[in-house]
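Structure ticket #2291
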Amino acid sequence: MKFWILVHTYARLKLKSEAVKTYLSYFWWLLEPALFVAGFYVVFAIILDMRTTDFIVFLVCGKIPYLWFSKCINGAAGSVFAGRELLTNGSVRPELFPMVDFTQNLYKQAVALAAMLAFVIMQGHFPTTTWFLLPLVVLTQLVFMVPLALIAAWVTAMVPDARMLINILVLMLLFLSGVFWDINELASPIKEYVMLYNPLAFLIDAYRQVLLHQTAPDWWHLGMIFLFSCLACLLLFRFYAWTRSRLTNKVLYS
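Resolution: structure written out below.
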């Protein structure tokens, strides 16, 4: 409990520190995802003429969850090394740093998600009872990203060059996860393979199913992602405890 209180406090202080460094302060939490969506809309909908019915809403429901994913994973990569000065305190656990960065992005995503829902409603997709399923999709994505963030932080602390590879892999997922195209238009068995081996593609489609099509996601698939992610979280926190001294020495003395 003390660890998570520290994570929350540290993340909140870093958010305040980050906000006072810019003129637009907290407004960037809304402006940044809006600019990303606008830029991709110009490219894919106007220049390449890939517009479909409600394409902008379709794009927003894919881009906002992906931005959350990319920020959490890329932010966690290198977070341990960035906080190496605090590691001189023997009571500080290395997993603190990826979890603080993860929590920062969680708070920002809450604002972006609220803006996404407001935009979807303004475009004529009004709330239905299916929308009550959205917290389950959000929670599953959150739990899915925690072990990935921990892995990214540990690997980049041990092998700094891995951060470049992680950035490339995250960028590749932008094009492989159905952000710009509908995964349901894929023919079988390609669709099943993508859903199985790319959980992010399934989660992005789940957002759209709930918000735009008023249908429930595949509960079995969603549950499997959640359960395996929870198990991975437990194992990785234990792994951090096992490798704590090795990781600390590597960061401080390399």
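Closing remark: Residues 43 and 49 are 8 Å apart (CA to CA).
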